[in-house]
Amino acid sequence: MSADFYLVRHAKKEIGIGDVLVSSEGLKQANMTAEHFKKVPFSRIVYSPLKRSMITAEIISKTTRKALTEDIRLRERVNWGDLSGQTFEEFVEMWNRCTREREFSPPVGDSARKAGERMTSCLLELADRHPHESFLIVTHGGLITDFLANEFNHEELARKYPNFIEEQSYLVPECSITKVRYCEEKFELIDFANVTHLNH
Q1: At residue 169, does pLDDT exceed 80?
Q2: Which residue range forms the structural domain that includes residue 176?
């Protein structure tokens, strides 16, 4: 059994608290990403329920004519606005603690480890139900790095980016593509945070 997964971070979002929409620049990024995936064979799109991921996924789906499925397991670790009254500075402090201490459970949301485990369970279920297919996963930068930090050791991640663990919160740009393959009961990291499709 093997399956390929294209992990796409959502397009650039509007600045604001809560479940915000994609910005005008983000719409351009999403359309460029959609054009790229017209040339990449894959079976279906699975996306996070947050609006920035849903909108990105819908744009790619419209261009590629691939079916869409929402999966709550692809939601971000925690979203600014989940904790009532929290300032952005307080959110960033909480986020950074979760990143440093991967077992730390914030007052809302999940620990980094648990968030990564959510994503793993989603991908394994897809690989099991649809073996030998490829999937486009539209999700969040934090969840992608949480997943990678769970599934790969420091040495493997350092080969893709030398200071991965320390700098992970800044390494996955909007609409970047990270490719992983599941084969022989383990994941292989093929490509990390590729943005060449946005540089035309």
Answers
A1: yes
A2: 2-77+111-198
The pLDDT assigned to 155 comes to 87
Contacts of 9 (CB under 8 A, 6+ apart): 139, 140, 141, 144, 172, 173, 174, 175, 176
Secondary structure element (H or E) that encloses residue 57, with its range: helix 51-64
Quote the mean pLDDT of the chain: 95
pTM of the model: 0.96
Confidence at residue 101, expressed as pLDDT on a 0 to 100 scale:
95
Total count of domains within the chain = 1
Sheet containing 44-47: which strands, arranged edge to edge?
67-70, 44-47, 134-139, 2-9, 177-183, 186-194
Instruction: Specify the CATH number for the domain of residue 149.
Output: 3.40.50.1240
Q: Are 79 and 109 in contact (CB under 8 A)?
A: yes
Of all residues in the chain, what percent are helix, strand and coil, respectively (each to 5)?
A: 45, 20, 35
Structure tokens at 75: 């939601």
DSSP labels for 23-35?
-HHHHHHHHHHHH
pLDDT, average across residues 106-130: 96
Compute and round to an integer the Cα radius of gyration of the chain.
16
Residues 6+ apart with CB under 8 A from 66: 42, 43, 44, 45, 60, 136
